[in-house]
Design brief:
With 277 residues, this protein is mainly β. 13% of the residues lie in helices and 39% in strands.
Length: 277
């Protein structure tokens, strides 16, 4: 059985003037329109296609690549709004509907919004929802500390950035852990710092043992060597922004680096900054 809203590898049944029919299983034949056929197809050839329903409810195959599939989150642009809802550009000729019941704010043309793409049970059509929380945290995360995950940044908060982890879970990048700013809508590779009791996941942009603190300590010493009096007006009390601007690192990593240098008796830490010994 084909998976609507996903890529499928299907067998060619026959060619017609307006395209080719593919075997959708259970006696169902799915049209691949001629405009999507770049090279000649022959019966029993197999081809990778994306399956969705057209405006008349018929299954259609395409070789175009949508920006997102069923079961995934993405930021998409609103192309139109009418009495049915908002329609999004998702990379296919047929636009993606966000029904009014699945909107959290009034949408207008040109807005770029985060949505979850799913298959409507009643119509079996691919639709989208802006109610992200309904589709997050519904399974128990099973990650070890340091696990590599996919994260989509979708909201700024007072303490950092909220992210969607592997299209399933709530995630959080804390400001104190960041060595560079993040952008809303940015998809990044991240590492699991901690899985909390409520199922939400604390994230890092770097692994736990990637040598970054050692490299930062070397950068701090190199900077102190360039200063005429070997003094830099940065310390534990400096703002994360000031530290990031100077060393492109998080405040947490900076504190680890200067702590290491202090223990090695290579610097002294004063209320106003650090000084080379």
């Amino acid at each position: 059985m084909v998976k609507i809203g996903r890529y499928n590898k299907l067998r060619v049944v026959k060619n017609v003037d307006f395209g080719a029919y593919l075997d959708g299983g259970d006696g169902v034949e799915i049209l691949l329109p001629a405009r999507y056929i770049d090279a000649p197809l022959h019966p029993d050839d197999e081809i990778d296609v994306f399956i969705y329903k057209d405006n008349e409810g018929r299954l259609i195959a395409t070789t175009e690549h949508p920006y997102v599939q069923v079961g995934e989150f993405a930021f998409l642009q609103v192309n139109d709004v009418n009495r049915m809802g908002a329609f999004l550009d998702w990379g296919l000729m047929k636009q993606l509907l966000v029904p009014f019941s699945e909107q959290t704010v009034k949408l207008s043309r040109g807005m770029v919004i985060p949505v979850y793409v799913y298959l409507d049970d009643a119509s079996q059509r691919v639709v989208a929802s802006a109610k992200l929380d309904h589709f997050l945290g519904n399974t128990i995360p099973d990650y070890a500390i340091g696990s590599l995950v996919k994260a989509l940044v979708y909201k700024r908060t007072d303490v950092g950035y909220k992210a969607i982890v592997d299209d399933k879970h709530h995630g959080m990048f804390y400001e104190s852990d960041l060595y560079k700013p993040l952008e809303i809508g940015e998809a990044v590779t991240a590492y699991v710092k901690r899985v909390r009791e409520d199922g939400k996941i604390d994230l890092l942009l770097h692994g736990a043992h990637d040598g970054r603190v050692e490299a930062l300590a070397r950068a701090v010493m190199a900077r102190l060597d360039r200063e005429p009096d070997g003094f830099l007006p940065l310390c534990d009390n400096s703002s994360p922004e000031a530290i990031r601007e100077t060393f492109s690192c998080s405040k947490k990593d900076f504190k680890k680096a200067i702590g290491s240098l202090y223990r090695e008796h290579r610097i002294e830490i004063t209320p106003g900054g650090i000084r080379k010994v």
